[in-house]
Amino acid sequence: MARSPCDLRLLLLAAAAAFIYIQVRLFATQSHYADRLAEAERSENQCTSQLKSLIDQVSMQQEKIVALEEIKVRQDEERAHLRILIKDLEKRSVQKLLDKNVVPVAAVVIMACNRPDYLERTVESILKYQTSVASKFPLFISQDGANGAVKNKALEYKQITYMQHVDLEPVQTERPGELTAYYKIAKHYKWALDNLFIKHNFARVIILEDDMEIAPDFFDYFEAAAKLLDNDKYVMLLYAFYIQI
């Protein structure tokens, strides 16, 4: 059965419409994927740029770390050198204070922390009577902490050997709630006494705090009592503190 020309035209129109629709959809799909591809490329470029920036930052940080490590090595070397110098200076200072022909009766150490005005009064009180017996009673100041005013005041006295105890370690108390100040003071005392007894090899040490003033017979008393301390095994220490009521 033959089709009429009208039917053929309708079929052609339908086919053309379908073709056009397919082309439009295909173009839209291609445009969509092209946009997504462009966006992906932009994201990739951005990620690449960020990655490069991070690599540059890491490289800079590595260079800083290397530089800091070199600085630390130099500082460690300088600290080691300073320790040697300090030990040498302390040794020379003590040797200057000691008369080779006189055996010291005892080292006198003033325990200080953060009161420069009190320290000055104590030192002036001691020097008033110590100068004539300096070789028998070499004088030391042991400072706990890094108070600059106390250190400067101590270094003003050329006839006194200055020692500094700096302990930044956290204090571990035996019981919860205890005051840490007592532990810090005890550590300072032990450090100072170890230096005087072990490092400087003194047989006796007289301890004064930075708020004390001595009597005129202070050194005579300890020189006379030193023999008692040496000869009587029941005498462990000598006490000269007097509270006036």
UniProtKB/TrEMBL annotation:
Q: Does the keyword 4Fe-4S apply?
A: no
**Cellular component per GO?**
Golgi membrane
Q: Name one GO molecular function term.
A: manganese ion binding
User: What superkingdom heads the lineage?
Assistant: Eukaryota
Q: What is its EC number?
A: 2.4.1.101
Q: What organism is this sequence from? A: Zea mays (Maize)
Q: What does this protein do?
A: Initiates complex N-linked carbohydrate formation. Essential for the conversion of high-mannose to hybrid and complex N-glycans.
UniProt-listed InterPro entries: Glyco_trans_13, Glycosyltransferase_13, Nucleotide-diphossugar_trans
Tell me where in or outside the cell this protein is found: Golgi apparatus membrane
Q: Could you tell me the membrane topology recorded for this protein?
A: Single-pass type II membrane protein
Q: What is the protein named?
A: Alpha-1,3-mannosyl-glycoprotein 2-beta-N-acetylglucosaminyltransferase
> Sorted alphabetically, which keywords does the UniProt record give?
Glycosyltransferase, Golgi apparatus, Manganese, Membrane, Metal-binding, Signal-anchor, Transferase, Transmembrane, Transmembrane helix
The pathway entry for this protein reads as: Protein modification; protein glycosylation
Which cofactor(s) are needed, names only? Mn(2+)
Q: Which reaction does it catalyse?
A: N(4)-(alpha-D-Man-(1->3)-[alpha-D-Man-(1->3)-[alpha-D-Man-(1->6)]-alpha-D-Man-(1->6)]-beta-D-Man-(1->4)-beta-D-GlcNAc-(1->4)-beta-D-GlcNAc)-L-asparaginyl-[protein] (N-glucan mannose isomer 5A1,2) + UDP-N-acetyl-alpha-D-glucosamine = N(4)-{beta-D-GlcNAc-(1->2)-alpha-D-Man-(1->3)-[alpha-D-Man-(1->3)-[alpha-D-Man-(1->6)]-alpha-D-Man-(1->6)]-beta-D-Man-(1->4)-beta-D-GlcNAc-(1->4)-beta-D-GlcNAc}-L-asparaginyl-[protein] + UDP + H(+)
Recorded family membership = Belongs to the glycosyltransferase 13 family.
Q: What is its main location?
A: Golgi
Name the SUPFAM superfamilies for this protein: Nucleotide-diphospho-sugar transferases
Q: Name one Pfam family in it.
A: GNT-I
Note describing how the cofactor binds? The cofactor is mostly bound to the substrate.
Q: Does the keyword Calcium apply?
A: no
